[in-house]
């Protein structure tokens, strides 16, 4: 079953009297429980695609459908709950003067209802942290702990889809891999679908079911993560794989 669909999505930005075509008619689907990787060179439109899906910006053309229903730019509370974005800079995504528990409670109460209890211990456990860290302020956590808490906050509202834009690029290499693996496990256990934007094709190959490769605002190739990365059809994908493996 398809959870999310993008049809002919385009986005033009105007900058100093120039039009930048950040996205040029992209069609894609995300299936129930699927983890979809999104890769491509810098500036290819990956973040733009996620911003349109999350409703942070309106598309210039095209439509986004959730369970087959077209979404308008102004989302309902239920639609906000269904799609949760996790950002690269986790500390900045939390209110500096609220404890993590307070921030999570605010999100749950806004999106699921005032009387819905928050299971702090279970959430901390889900992301592999001791429950007492819930009472801390964001600046009292390490970058990796804060990113785990951002995952906990997203999962606390029981989303159907997680949108993750390079969420570990601010962390050291070993915590990057740990957190992405944790996130993939959480998605599989909760049957949550996800789009992972990552430069790391090795990570995509390990954790994602399918991958889409973008270039210059268009999709150039897609398929099972293993197949696209091991045996790319397009020259561009081949170069991308080579350049990443060299690093
Ligand atoms: N608000 C904006 N105004 C003008 N141009 C923008 C804006 N946001 C993005 N762009 C341009 O749109 C194109 C796509 O940007 P986008 O951020 O989607 O790329 P990306 O694939 O996420 O790159 P990266 O891997 O570097 O994060 C780029 O050329 C970028 O400069
Ligand atoms: Mg980006």
Secondary-structure element sequence? EEEHEEHEHHHHEHEHEEHH
CATH hierarchy, class: Alpha Beta
Question: What is the assembly state of the chains in this entry?
Answer: single chain
CATH homology superfamily:
P-loop containing nucleotide triphosphate hydrolases
Domain tally: 1
CATH names the topology as Rossmann fold
Shape: globular
The poorly predicted ranges are: none
Q: Which band does the percent of strand residues land in?
A: 25-35%
Structural class: alpha/beta
Bound molecules: adenosine-5'-triphosphate, magnesium ion
Mean pLDDT: 94
CATH architecture group name? 3-Layer(aba) Sandwich
* Counted beta strands: 10
Strand order of the largest sheet: 6-7-8-3-9-10
How would a crystallographer describe the biggest sheet?
6 strands, mixed
Provide the descriptors you would attach to this structure in a database record.
binds magnesium ion, 39% helix, four-stranded antiparallel sheet, globular, 247 residues, six-stranded mixed sheet, alpha/beta, Rossmann fold, 10 helices
